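@channel sequence for tomorrow's demo:
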Amino acid sequence: MRWFIALLLYRLILPLLFIAAFPGWLIKMLRRDGLGTGLLERIGIYSDADEFEPFEAVHIHAVSVGETLLALKLIREWRERSPEQAFVVALGTATGHRVATQAGIKDLRVTYAPLDMRWMVRRYLARFQPSKVVLIEGEVWPHLLMACENRGIAATLVNARVSPRSARRFRAFAPWIRPLYSRLRAVAIQELQDASLWRELGVPAERIQHTGSLKFDPGSGEPPNTRPEFASILELYSSGRPLVLAASTHPGENAWIASTLSKELPDIIIAVAPRHAEKRQEVLQELKQAGLSGVLRSLLKVSSPSLQNEVLVIDSTGELKDWTSHADVVIIGKSFLSQGGQNPCEAIQARKPVIFGPHMENFQPLCSKLLDAEGALLACDAQQLAEAVNKALDARCATLFARNASQVLQVHMGATGRIIDLIEGP
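structure tokens (generated this afternoon):
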């Protein structure tokens, strides 16, 4: 009875939420150049005949750019094992769509995931007839799961992640949503201690497997690499200056970090990589209001004039991973003035010392383990941030922190392969 009521409420509220959110969503798509990328697929309308689609492929669903990168990482390793396996990646944002389209994976069909309305989901499944559906981290949708179950399509949740705040909410509503999560064929969890939560949510114990984190697996996917183009950009600054990169920053952090470092450490190059590259002008304005000058990486060329103290704003999508290879220190965004934090693993894989603020809730318990192992530095205010950067710029300290952090990630080695085994299993 509870599930019936919960589903009824969901079906009543979902269209209202869509109507309320549509204007803002449309503006966001315009800003991200998404309107020409097949957005009608979000409502189950496709431009090409369905005979051209890859039938019975493995479908991987992701919403955010981070989840999209995880989906691509999974596909690349799976292709190494099974070169003929067909994949469709179903995404929720224009930025994720662009990242997947530009990934260079042969014969990868990139589409938009349908909104979770019954007729849209039915059209999507009837068109593609997927053999399996893989959901990344937390993208569990009632109508999609129920339709998959009705069609005999196995749906697996991988890299399952629940923040402490969400865990409390899930437990409170567990009696209402168990019939939803019990439809999952399997759940791949990152941390063993999360197993009890998924059991409370209705997933039988035998369907829960501790695989480690796809996100934190250092042994799969392309490692960060240096690029000659990036080195040429850095040569526009005075030679010999270390690069401090603030990665995946959110509004307010760009100026706060840059102001702190420019006052305390004037001999460094400061770069900020905003989480949303399309907000480049807002970032420049934020820096200007703080009395700083910013320059867009997208406008820089080898022939550009020399730079002095300008803050480098990395506004090109898909480049952040390789910029970490050029950095001497990486500061993790969304951990100072916002909550949740961003993924520190690309910087760790590049063997760079990592600094983050007090708000890394989405990456616990990894961050606690990093701090305990002296694999990262914590800064809770401006003074601590300047001190942490100064410490991390010491060559001996940088080597120590990078080595310790890499050892912490070793427990996740092979997670991608274990996830593939779970999906392919009976």
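heads up for whoever presents: Residues 228-411 form a domain with the Rossmann fold fold (CATH 3.40.50.2000).
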